[in-house]
Amino acid sequence: MNLYYISSSSLPSRAANSIHTINMCKAFKKYKLDISLFLTETKKNSKQIKDLKKNKIKIKSLISPTKRGVELLNCLISISIYFCDKFMNNKPDIVISRNIFGAYFFHFFTKTKIIYETHIPELGIRGKIQKTLFKDSSLKKIVISESLLREIYKHHKIALNNKIKKSVIILHDGAFNLFSNKVPKKYKLSFEKIKKNLSTNKNKVSLVGYFGHLHKGRGIELILELAQLRPNFTFLVFGGAESDIEKFKKICTPKNIYIMGFYEHEMVRYFMTKMDVLLMPYQKKVFLKKNQISTEKWMSPLKLFEYMSSKKPIISSNIKVLKEVLENKKNSLLVESDNKFEWVKSIDLLIKNKKLSKKLAFNAYTSFKNNYTWDIRAKKILEFVNVK
Three-state SS for 354? Predict the structure, then answer.
């Protein structure tokens, strides 16, 4: 069975949408689909591309040094290849598109099963296209949270009815299960090296971890304050773009906080399992990279599900959309985003109360394993479009 996956992503990239694309394609491959992936390569044959090819995913890429204006070109390439494949009697059985132009063209100009996935309410000409797609109950659509679904219909002033609701499925983001495979030795060695370089390593200290981007609204400034309030704990911050990493390294920080920088994605996920507490300190406004769009109303962060998969306790900001997955004192502790004393109190509680810590971690992991793996997500999509 042939699948076209039309992405809006560029590779190589540290962005969540690129990681989402890679992992969804790997998950679909487990269902024995023949996958053609359409995306942009800003650097030929990157490690991420090689990994996809290793998983026998066919890469139909546009080579471009820039990310601007390539989404429409990728759509046109996918349409061209579609008609060639159709002529060769090898056209796709299903098309999944995170590329809004691809969703529009395949839905209105082919008879192939098509599903459109979006993680954001669109603006401008893209907004007009998105409104058309969401008003059409014959097109199947994926959104990443209930809040996003409501926001899109409110944003485009579309009246919800049962017919339209049935055309949309809500699927949060996900993660792969770390504990289903043996941990590579190099991951263990890398973490041992990190521990040796900690100035606090002479004492047995608790490790408080943050993993993810460092731009506006992610709560890095709050973590700096927490480190000052708890000098007996070690705070490790992993991830971020190079410009953000350098920015925070230059800030005068307490000796017990370390801006670790970028490590490969799967290695970082192993590092999560070595923390005592994981922090998700989203602020009242959570911005994407260019600080133009805030996503706190509808987001479904990859980090959330990776945290849940780590079997470690989570402290998260008490944001409405996150409560679609998290429940205070059941699978996490939820704290008001700007109350640093409540954050410190919660960290203290989890470090001291091992029973509570294990309970929250177990419940989060169980919920993840039963609901939020990439494999489960792929299966639900295939069922939604009646592919067996």
Answer: helix
- Residue 244: how many CA atoms within 13 Å on its side-chain side? 21
pLDDT digits (tens, 9 = 90+) for 292-324: 678 999 999 999 999 999 999 999 999 999 999
What is the distance between the alpha carbons of residues 103 and 195, in angstroms, rounded to a whole number? 47
B/e letters for 374-386, b = 16+ CB within 10 Å, e = fewer, are bbbbbeebbebee
Q: What is the spatial distance between Cα 345 and Cα 339, in angstroms, rounded to a whole number?
A: 10
Structure tokens at 359: 């309970």
Position 7 scores a pLDDT of 95
CA-CA distance, 86 to 354, in Å (whole number)? Answer: 59
Sheet holding 168-170, edge to edge: 58-63, 34-41, 2-11, 94-97, 113-118, 140-143, 168-170
Q: Cβ(355)–Cβ(329) under 8 Å?
A: no
The Cα 4–Cα 58 span in angstroms is 10
Confidence of residue 242 (pLDDT cuts 50, 70, 90): confident
pLDDT at 64: 85
Q: Among 275, 233, 291, which residue's Cα sits nearest to residue 257?
A: 233
| C-alpha neighbours within 13 Å on the C-beta side of residue 318 | 12
Cβ contacts of 218 within 8 Å, gap of 6 or more:
212, 281, 282, 283, 286
Domains of the chain by start residue, with CATH? 2-174+373-384 (3.40.50.2000), 178-371 (3.40.50.2000)
Q: Rounded to whole angstroms, how far apart are CA atoms 298 and 294?
A: 9
pTM recorded for the entire structure: 0.94
Give the type of residue at 252.
C
Q: What is the DSSP letter of 65?
A: S
For the chain, the average pLDDT equals 93
How many other C-beta atoms lie within 10 A of the C-beta of residue 89?
A: 6
What are the strands of the beta sheet with 333-335, ordered from one edge?
257-261, 233-238, 206-211, 277-280, 314-317, 333-335
pLDDT band at 246 (very low <50, low <70, confident <90, very high): confident
